Amino acid sequence: MKRSNKKDRDSTAFIYVRLSRDDGLEGESYSISNQKKLLAKAAKDAGYTNIVTYADDGVSGVTMNRPGFQAMLAELEKDHAAAVYVKDMSRLGRNYIEVGKLTEEFFPQHEIRLVAISDGIDTNAGENELAPIRNLFNEWYARDISKKRRISNKVRGNSGEPLGPPPYGYRKDQDDPKRWVIEPEAAATVRRIYDSFLSGQGVEQIAKALGEDGILTPSAYWEAHGISRAGKEKALSPTLWSRGTIIKILTKQEYCGDVINFRTYSKSYKLKARIENDPENWAVFKDVNEAIIDRATWERVQVKRKGLRKRKAFDGEVSLFSGLVTCADCGSNMNFRFNQRNHEITFFSCSNYKGNRGGTCESTHYIRVDFLEQIVLGEIRRLTKYATAYEDQFAEAVMELSIKNAEADREAQQKNLWAMEARDRELDKLFERLYEDNVSGKLTDERFARMSERYDAEQKELAEKISATRKALEKSVSKALTKDMFLSIVRKYTRARKLTRPMVNELIDHIDVHQAEKVDGVWEQRLTIHYNVIGPIVIPEDIPLPAPEVTVNTRKGVWVNYAAGQKNE
């Protein structure tokens, strides 16, 4: 719109209409169409011949950042209208301070007439002393509505009713909107994402593959099926999957059939930004809906995501063992590297080696990738033979190790929890003594403030650690119950001829690499393979299943042999 001359401006009136959930009980007169009719007639009756309408439908008056409203203000700043018509002052907004700025500063400065029909306000008729009070009441109304809605949401959320829309893969049940049912097409894509991730594909690879196969993104899928969902503007391509979308799907516990409420919250009814809530404050209701992903699979994905550390070689290659190899001495992750002179030679070395800046580990724990691959494949073959030929003995060993590892982990965590809780109680007592000493005059206010601040910081940190440890303890209870799943995975790779990413990810939790040592004139290197669920497993010596014989010529021309079994301390 070009800048108007005075004649055009004087004949132009803007009418602004707004409706949101806040106004849902105010009757048919507040509908967008009725507001337009009422205001257009009033403006024409006042002599305005050019009527321009701006509208915001479904936007709360608490925020002033409304598209239609902001567009109108931009045109008013350009002197394109002489008057603004609204049904009442609450249409301008339910923010006392911001609406006050408009009526007391913006409109007078730009010589704009304001007419609020239902409130009997017309600035051409003189200043209305009740306008500020009406603005204040409008804000109180918004605050009251917000308070009631929060209480309602709290009651609904704590009763297990989902507060948000169903995630991609589900839709609301037509017979019972409080429950979700599976959408087969979208659910198939969710399952594909989980299967692809567990088979070793990265999130970028998964996103690329979905796009290449023409799979619609969640937002494009909803749009194609006529489902209205709030969110960002649609992407340039309906099949352009993002890394963030894949991660969000991989971490959504709702796919186990759960309902989770209160994941986020807002600090004030005036602030629409959502803040991540502490998981302690979530309301979790398990197995409410039919699961798209079984819980064991979902938990495996979370464990894999937590421990994943991708390191790329010279040509962008990612090792099968990236994120799984650790230093046996210091426990640090080992970096995937390539030989500077011969890029075909790849290896792992300790990321905490003291030769690196800031490192503390005494040795590099260097191990060639081809050496590692041969050992792991040989040990997996030996493990599958053990499971097949000695099934009962293997099952008994797995059960024993599973329970033993879970109990050991739980015992260590429980001791740590007790120690932290004891320290927390001790800090409470210290606070009491500090307060008493301060009141009695034994401790100055300055020293009291300094010491209490230090204790308070420590107690807050303790509270976070205690919460995390309690959650870990809850998860450890079911850790020993997944041995059947491990047994089925082992049997799946009975005839494996080469290592694959799914095989490594499904069977192995991590691998400890020991520093090579010279024994009786021969260099030997030991590995400790920690299998998922059961940890390291030692095949009894009386069972005729010899360890794989693997030898490699290292970077310095030294031959190193694989030494099976646990290292004697």
Describe this structure in words.
The protein is α/β, with parallel strands linked by helices and 569 residues long. Among the domains are: 6-145, Resolvase, N-terminal catalytic domain (Rossmann fold), CATH 3.40.50.1390; 170-307, Hect, E3 ligase catalytic domain fold (Alpha-Beta Complex); 393-482. Helices cover 44% and strands 15% of the residues. It has 16 helices and 20 strands. The chain has helices spanning 6-10, 32-45, 67-77, 89-92, 96-109, 131-158, 184-198, 203-212, 218-224, 243-251, 295-307, 369-389, 391-440, 445-476, 483-492, 501-507, and strands spanning 12-19, 50-57, 83-86, 113-116, 121-122, 170-172, 180-182, 259-261, 264-265, 275-276, 283-285, 325-327, 334-338, 346-350, 367-368, 508-513, 517-519, 522-531, 551-553, 559-563. Strands 12, 16, 17, 18, 19 and 20 form a 6-stranded mixed beta sheet that branches. A 5-stranded mixed beta sheet has the order 2-1-3-4-5, with helices on both faces. α13 runs antiparallel to α14 (445-476).
What is the structure about, briefly put?
By secondary structure, the protein is an alpha/beta fold. The chain contains 16 helices and 20 strands.
